[in-house]
From TrEMBL:
Family that this chain belongs to: Belongs to the CEP76 family.
Location of the CEP76/DRC7 peptidase-like domain: 363-493
Residues of the Centrosomal protein of 76 kDa C-terminal domain: 520-658
Descriptive protein name: Centrosomal protein of 76 kDa
The species this protein was found in: Panthera leo (Lion)
Subunit description: Interacts with CCP110 and CEP97.
Location of this chain's protein in the cell: Cytoplasm, Cytoskeleton, Microtubule organizing center, Centrosome, Centriole
Length: 661
């Protein structure tokens, strides 16, 4: 293989730099002197090249050089939704600088480096992990102007060893074109922050949201040479939003370097004006919201007890209008239908916001990036995401805030069809319910529709453009009429007022919406791994009971169509393929034998945890602990992947045995 002259000279320069850095020339001189002194016979006057290379190889110098030269294809885990090719990096183990070769020189980039952390005092007593030991890790997730990145996981420590670089393209979304690079003044008008989310993953794979931070990057525009270093203090989330959790050292650099930097005074003035403008808009909206609420209470005093939620606190404890949590979101080619989108939201984990001590539910509506990176959230997070996706599919969708049985606050999604059909979507289960209102004035003997949905009351509905408070005599869902244009039933907020604080770019305090990312999970490999682990767990469990275990691979394989059918039904509400599965099982089970099967569904990939859950079911335990003549066991696992590495895991345990009366 021949290299072009310029590439060959570049390679020579890299090798020369590496040799100089390791002081290889000095070590060669030492070995040469030592070899001449120890190995050269008195009658020999010179040493051949072969002799010298042998001496260098024997002392490990050549191996050391080759180890230090480390070519990698992807040093930074990029989550770009549509990257045509991954960057190729050259790196050495002593340096944190990554040299990327596929940078477009006509575009403007912000190179953000995270150069370590400190003062993560919660991990002060954390022991140093041994090589190969599984330990809790920190992962830093970034979003900037429709680009997403994820750092390499680092062990949790008081001073976590973050050393990652992220190349953020500033020049996007029609700001300039390929022939004109964005200058300092143009970039100063780009108010999008870099959203940074820190996630902790424990040894069992459970994720926790540690911090969420919006980095104002434009200070680099007023820095000398377009390079600046920052110390970022990360605050906790929820009830700990006023408590520091740690500090990150960050370096920002513009590429290509700026021809003309702005004065720091100009940058600071622009940022101050934006903050002032945002504060004024938020103040005016708050004044309007208070007036709207007073008018709403004057309609009926009982409205004071209805769940009409105009503002909600995010993970940083900041009150935001609820409409700002919604935005039409297109999933690209990752999700094909609204029902598939509902299934995706359903398989994201459900977890109520953690609260220290008692006192009921802690409110925390997460920003979308924090929800997606953690892969789990509360019912409001699920409802906001599902509503955004359904709006992206062109449906008229709203988030409903009300209660379930026993007065438990809840949020779900509603779509209004062009024919007047009202459909409720439960974001935690993926179930859909058609709403048919009960007429309270009908005769008691008249037949009324029986509601199948679990919702009891409804206080308000909203999306990215509208907010409506329920002002009907009763807030009971079953008798509620969803004619949203009737102001005698639904009191609307001014759409202009909502637009002033919730429209994209209206204020600099709004967190931008990130794109969805494709799954990084290999469904086949993961299915096999979980299945093998379950086989081992079952065999050990039966061994403890004094039972032998004989697996039948063919029977395990025959369970696959059933698992695929179950997932298809969850996604489409259509059952298919059951007849073929039943016919195959009948053929596989001889006369006089009994077949038993137990399917179960999880949204996590921890085999031991799933097995413990299965054993709590008497039906499953009966199969796993089956006794009898000619007992044959089978287990099949099928993992279905969705965006954001969410997954639906279907497991089926089965056995067949000879019936002995």
């Amino acid at each position: 293989m021949s290299l072009p002259p310029e590439k060959a000279s570049e390679l020579k320069q890299l090798i020369h730099q590496q040799l100089s850095k390791m002081d290889v020339h000095g070590r060669i001189r030492e070995i040469l002197a030592e070899t001449i002194r120890e190995e050269l016979a008195p009658d020999q006057q010179q040493l051949s090249t072969e002799d010298l290379i042998k001496a260098l190889r024997r002392r490990g110098i050549i191996d050391d050089v080759m180890k230090e030269l480390n070519f990698v294809t992807d040093s930074v885990d990029q989550e770009l939704p549509s990257s045509p090719k991954q960057p190729v990096c050259f790196t050495d183990r002593q340096s944190t600088l990554l040299k990327k070769t596929n940078i477009d020189p006509t575009r403007r980039y912000l190179y953000l480096q995270v150069l370590g952390g400190k003062a993560f005092l919660e991990h002060l007593q954390e022991p140093e992990p041994l090589p190969g030991q599984v330990c809790s890790t920190f992962t830093l997730c970034l979003h900037f102007r429709n680009q997403r990145f994820r750092s390499k996981p680092v062990p949790c420590a008081c001073e976590p060893d973050f050393h990652d670089g992220f190349l953020l393209e500033v020049h996007r979304e029609n700001l300039g074109d390929g022939t004109r690079m964005a200058d300092s003044t143009t970039m100063l008008s780009i108010s999008d922050p870099v959203h940074m989310v820190l996630i902790k993953t424990d040894i069992f794979g459970e994720t926790t949201l540690v911090a969420s931070y919006f980095l104002e990057w434009r200070s680099v525009l007023g820095s000398e040479n377009g390079v600046t270093s920052l110390t970022v203090e990360l605050m906790g989330v929820g009830t700990e939003s006023k408590v520091s959790v740690g500090i990150l050292n960050i370096k920002l650099e513009m590429y290509p370097p700026l021809n003309q930097t702005l004065s720091q005074e100009v940058v600071n003035t622009q940022l101050a004006l934006e903050r002032q403008k945002t504060a004024e808009k938020e103040r005016l909206f708050l004044v309007y919201a208070k007036q709207w609420w007073r008018e709403y209470l004057q309609i009926r005093p009982s409205h004071n007890s209805r769940l009409v939620k105009i503002f909600a606190q995010d993970e940083n404890g900041i009150n935001r209008p609820v409409c700002s949590y919604i935005k039409p979101l297109r999933a690209g080619r990752l999700l094909d239908t609204p029902r598939q989108a509902a299934r995706f939201v359903n398989v994201l984990g459900y977890e109520r916001a953690p609260v220290i001590g008692g006192g009921g539910k802690q409110e925390q509506w997460c920003t979308l990036l924090a929800f997606l990176c953690r892969n789990k959230g509360d019912c409001e997070d699920h409802a906001n995401l599902l509503c955004s996706l359904l709006l992206g599919y062109g449906l008229e969708a709203f988030v409903c805030v009300g209660t379930k049985a026993k007065g438990i606050p809840h949020a779900w999604v509603m779509t209004c069809g062009t024919d007047g059909t009202v459909t409720f979507w439960e974001s935690l289960t993926g179930h859909r319910y058609i709403h048919k209102p009960v007429n309270p004035d009908e005769s008691p003997v008249a037949e009324q529709p029986k509601p199948l949905y679990p919702y009891r009351t409804i206080g308000c509905v909203f999306n990215h453009q509208m907010f409506l408070g329920n002002c009907q005599p009763s807030d009971s869902v079953e008798i509620c009429v969803f004619d949203l244009n009737d102001e005698s039933k639904w009191k609307p907020m001014s759409e202009e007022a909502i637009k002033s604080v919730c429209a994209p770019g209206a204020t600099t305090s709004l967190p931008p919406f990130p794109p969805l990312c494709a799954s990084t999970i290999d469904a086949s490999v993961t299915s096999n791994e979980i299945e093998m682990q379950l086989r081992l767990l079952v065999s050990e469990h039966r061994k403890d009971l004094g039972l032998t275990t004989v697996w039948e691979d063919q029977l395990s394989y025959l369970l696959s169509p059933a698992l695929a059918s179950y997932e298809f039904e969850r996604t489409t509400s259509i059952s298919a393929g059951n007849e073929e599965f039943q016919d195959a099982i009948r053929r596989a089970v001889p006369d006089g034998h009994t077949f038993k099967g137990f399917p179960i569904h999880f949204v996590y990939r921890n085999a031991r945890r799933a097995f413990a859950t299965c054993l709590r079911s008497p039906f499953c335990e009966e199969i796993i602990c089956c006794r009898g003549d000619q007992v044959r066991l089978a287990v099949r696992v099928r993992v279905f992947t969705y965006p954001e590495s969410a997954c639906a895991v279907w497991i089926m345990f089965a056995c067949k045995y000879r019936s002995v009366l």
